[in-house]
Design brief:
Layout (H helix, E strand, L loop, with lengths): L1 H22 L16 H10 L22 H12 L1 H22 L13 E3 L3 H30 L1 H4 L1 H33 L9 H6 L17 H25 L7 H28 L8 H5 L2 E3 H7 L1 H9 L6 H19 L1
Antiparallel strand pairs: 1-2
Helix pairs in contact: 3-4, 3-10, 4-10, 5-7, 7-9, 9-10, 12-13
């Protein structure tokens, strides 16, 4: 026992100086001042996102921007898409329908002074009408499928559910990509078929200043196409080309275009399509129930001479001078011959 007590006292004598030294507070100046700890997780995330830094990543995959792991601009583009085209497209299209409804209620159908005469003038050839209807049908299909892809998530999922929307969106995407090149071909055919008669003339500015006859009194003179029809033609051609080119960039992302090019192309495609869809609604209204006698030109190729006098008086004078006006009987005979020829082909 005496020996054990001696060993314990020896150990305590060795440990007590160390414990007392540890208990003495250290002076402040022993620690470096102003040093902040670095969070390795934050630094890693900052490098991954590459904020305000050049692309420094290394990848075995060769291609444009393959070294970018996370693209910060993608978040901005997605936010802009949701806050702008997705949000405002229903408002724009709804406003167009509302304006046309008010116009129809207040003005009604634009009639023909003196009514239809029965005397007809050939306005469009069969080839021109085929080009027009092909472009119109393809555009309507692309407009519907495009709106499904753009607005389907916020509007259709609550109505039909995710599974139904998934099938509808998948079919719309495939159909949209398939008919896009057909739209471009039809657009080029429209360009070459109608460009000569859609060059602006001296009297077109007067038509524009008078709002096509809706502003002020008196008739507004017009040629084969008036200022409004020419402007609509060039809207279709120019915006249609922008939509087509941007669509080809989007559907074929393997020709060297980077993320920024794809994002810009998507915005050009969407905004161009919204504008063209909105204006086309007005065109369809004025070309059908909005104006008496207009639709007949794209159905049979012929229009009533009184309609021509009301909307295209300069062209009407040319038709009379060149003896291009035919009687109602002659028009009926021509239509009958076409019907007989169609029946013979079917037989």
């Amino acid at each position: 026992p005496a020996r054990s007590a001696s060993i314990i006292l020896l150990l305590l004598s060795l440990l007590l100086p160390q414990l007392s030294a540890a208990a003495i507070p250290q002076k402040h100046e022993d620690f470096p001042q102003g040093v902040s700890a670095v969070n390795p997780g934050s630094e890693l995330w900052r490098e991954v996102r590459q904020r305000d830094l050049p692309v420094t990543g290394i990848s075995q995959v060769k291609g444009v921007e393959t070294g970018v792991l996370i693209n910060s601009h993608g978040d901005q583009w997605a936010r802009f898409r949701i806050e702008n085209p997705v949000k405002y497209t229903p408002m724009v299209l709804g406003a167009v329908f509302l304006v046309l409804l008010l116009f129809y209620v207040l003005r009604g159908k634009v009639g023909i002074a003196g009514g239809l005469s029965g005397q007809m003038v050939k306005r469009f050839s069969e080839t021109e009408r085929i080009v027009h209807w092909t472009l119109a049908i393809v555009f309507l299909f692309l407009a519907v499928t495009g709106l499904i892809l753009l607005l389907g998530r916020p509007l259709l999922i609550p109505l039909f559910g995710k599974e139904v929307f998934s099938l509808l969106a998948s079919a719309s995407k495939e159909g949209h990509n398939l008919f896009g090149p057909i739209f471009l071909v039809s657009l080029l055919m429209m360009l070459f078929s109608f460009v000569k008669r859609n060059i602006y003339e001296k009297g077109d500015l007067t038509w524009l200043l008078k709002g096509g006859g809706f502003i002020g009194d008196g008739h507004v003179s017009g040629g084969f196409f008036n200022m409004g029809e020419k402007t609509w033609y060039w809207i279709v051609i120019l915006i249609g080309l922008a939509i087509s080119i941007s669509g080809l960039i989007l559907v074929s992302p393997n020709f060297g275009q980077g993320r920024v090019v794809m994002e810009i192309s998507h915005l050009v495609h969407v905004f161009g399509a919204i504008i063209l869809t909105a204006v086309s609604i007005g065109h369809m209204y004025m070309g059908s129930i909005g104006t008496e006698g207009s639709l007949e030109g794209m159905k049979s190729g012929y229009v009533d001479i009184n309609w021509v006098e009301a909307h295209h008086d300069r062209w009407a004078r040319e038709c009379r001078e060149n003896e291009q006006v035919i009687s109602a009987e002659e028009f009926a005979r021509l239509q009958g011959n076409k019907a007989d020829a169609a029946m013979e082909k079917e037989a």
